From TrEMBL:
It comes from Agromyces seonyuensis. The lineage of its organism: Bacteria, Bacillati, Actinomycetota, Actinomycetes, Micrococcales. This is Signal recognition particle receptor FtsY. It is a peripheral membrane protein. Residues 91-291 form the SRP54-type proteins GTP-binding domain. NCBIfam families: ftsY. Keywords: Cell membrane, Cytoplasm, GTP-binding, Hydrolase, Membrane, Nucleotide-binding, Receptor.
């Protein structure tokens, strides 16, 4: 049997679903388990209410029925979002945004490899030009992934001009997918959003932007989401990447984050290795989450 993920509700739910019957404790215990898993109070209340209604409707007292109902309900709610990446343009331009430290650089490396595995050629653009070390780190990941990289000509070069060079080169060289890294310094929020706006305007003159992916650290759950609010409001985000799910106990965040932001999860990082990135499949996640 596959190893149980840290974010699975399995052990928290075992007592509930292994009990003889559904009673008042069932609902209290279920509510606490969902809150602990970071579903958030609103989603938790909603789920418990829906399940109570179903249990009544089907006149069941068997906790195994409740187990199945929870899994189906979570899958149904996760499936309301279109989680497929839209990369049909040539070149397909992907902007990657997010607060520093969430795993943006690592994600770009893994994503380049992921696309390479499907035979796609990838060019990474290092438009976070503020720190030379960040560019070097990105270059290391690009190399590992077998992807080309467009670097700034000097430290602090205008990020939009690096983005321009990157897309320009992809068009000249016939590279299929462009992934552009962007800055994530929170202390300059206003400036950061202006910078992103400029990158987008410059890129859009050359090619449509296929995806703007916001990277979120799953271990910070709903708190991290508050930090990323400015990106959600102003960056035209088309999808989310959840990182560090491997070390997270917050499985409920997977559901809550889509419902709170209205944005689909498109990629999930579950480890520090280059192969530790997958697409997001609601059925698989519902199954793993509820067990
Ligand atoms: P950035 O500042 O957003 O570019 O973040 P980095 O890509 O440098 O990552 C910050 C730290 O998070 C590094 O130590 C990464 O190895 C780690 N990290 C990134 N993604 C994952 C993940 O999916 N799982 C785990 N366990 N660690 C990750």
């Amino acid at each position: 049997m596959a190893e149980r993920a840290s974010w699975s509700l399995g052990s928290a739910l075992r007592g509930i679903f292994g009990a003889k019957t559904i009673d008042d404790d069932t609902w209290d215990d279920l509510e606490s388990a969902l809150i602990r898993a970071d579903f958030g109070p609103d989603v938790t209340e909603d789920i418990v209410e829906q399940l109570r209604a179903q249990v009544e409707r089907y006149r069941t007292t068997d906790p195994r029925d409740l187990n199945r109902m929870l899994r189906e309900l979570i899958e149904e709610r996760l499936s309301k979002f279109d989680t497929t990446l839209k990369l049909t343009e040539r070149p397909a331009v992907v902007l990657v945004v997010g607060v520093n430290g969430v795993g943006k650089t690592t994600t770009i490396g893994k994503f380049a490899k992921f696309l390479g595995n499907y035979g796609r050629s990838v060019l990474v653009g290092a438009a976070d030009t503020f720190r030379a070390a960040a560019v070097d780190q990105l270059a290391t990941w690009a190399e590992r992934a077998g992807a080309a990289i467009e670097r700034p000509e000097r430290e602090g070069q205008d990020p939009a001009s690096v983005a321009f060079q990157t897309v320009d080169r992809a068009k000249r060289e016939g590279i299929e997918i462009v992934i552009i890294d962007t800055a994530g310094r929170l202390q300059t929020k206003g400036g950061l959003m202006d910078e992103l706006g400029k990158i987008k305007r410059v890129v859009e003159k050359q090619a449509p932007i296929s995806e703007v992916l916001l990277v979120l650290d799953a271990t910070t759950g709903q708190n991290g989401l508050a930090q990323a609010e400015a990106f959600i409001q102003h960056a035209g985000v088309t999808g989310l990447v959840l990182t560090k799910l491997d070390g997270s106990a917050k499985g409920g965040f997977v559901l809550a984050v889509q419902e709170k932001t209205g944005l689909p999860i498109k990629l999930v990082g579950q480890g520090e290795g280059i192969g530790d990135l997958t697409g997001f499949t609601p059925h698989v996640f519902a199954e793993k989450l509820v067990g």
